[in-house]
Amino acid sequence: xxxxxxxxxxxxxxxxxxxxxxxxxxxxxxxxxxxxxxxxxxxxxxxxxxxxxxxxxxxxxxxxxxxxxxxxxxxxxxxxxxxxxxxxxxxxxxxxxxxxxxxxxxxxxxxxxxxxxxxxxxxxxxxxxxxxxxxxxxxxxxxxxxxxxxxxxxxxxxxxxxxxxxxxxxxxxxxxxxxxxxxxxxxxxxxxxxxxxxxxxxxxxxxxxxxxxxxxxxxxxxxxxxxxxxxxxxxxxxxxxxxxxxxxxxxxxxxxxxxxxxxxxxxxxxxxxxxxxxxxxxxxxxxxxxxxxxxxxxxxxxxxxxxxxxxxxxxxxxxxxxxxxxxxxxxxxxxxxxxxxxxxxxxxxxxxxx
Length: 354
Ligand code: TRP
Ligand code: SF4
Description:
By secondary structure, the chain is mainly alpha-helical. The chain is built from 15 helices and 5 strands.
């Protein structure tokens, strides 16, 4: 059976943390077994909010790609590429702009949210309003059928589907009267695939986030991970070692549920009976995290020592992506009666006269 095609992307904002891993990257790694995967570094999307200071952009792209490869994104099976090197994304976004009613963008809850949350940046721009139009182009240019994303991205996916439907309806050939669907659609209507992972608390108990400074990065050395676990907030009511604890209110235990899966019951019981102290409980967690992270760190270091190889992976992925993107654009240009060479303009006149 043909594998369904996936496209997903991340804005390069720097090193990835455990929350990013569980929320997205782990899913991507697993999906390589069942889908044809395209993974994109969305550098243009990063610029929609960071256009005033792009100084970190390249360094961030490097960190992200190393984190991906370290975590197990396999360039032999997946197409890993850089958005801004496939210029067709920009061309498709421009064309989609013709089809996208302003209200779809203005009503987008993510947009309204971000304008308020990132009030320190001037985001009342054409580019930022058009963020979901560019994202629709990212997805539809590969005719992707499935898009693994977090819940925050659902409004963008919905706009993507609406754009696909509208372009298909207008240019996807005759409409079948019973189904009311175009007979020759250009784009599939991609489905969101929500990551099953629960939100991971940060070291202070709030949501793990780079901007809160409460994260554990995938690339942190083992001793830094161990030190981080020592800082984690536990059951605040457990003051003395002899006090019984309540694992359900403890971030350390939330981690055990995700990373020490074979010993959760035992740890919960030992916590409740004060059979284990928080210091030892945290040591167990450091062990679980480090045994998961060790192979990732090792793979990352391998790639880090061979920058030429990473560049080749990106170059090959980008070339592959470009071929697919160009094939889609050829179809769309034709449907929109655009020319592929100046001579086509004159050929049309000659045909009309004949
Ligand atoms: N908007 C996504 C985010 O912030 C990144 C992204 C850009 C993306 N283009 C995409 C995700 C296409 C999925 C598909 O996380
Ligand atoms: Fe949390 Fe473990 Fe301490 Fe219980 S023993 S409160 S689960 S750190």
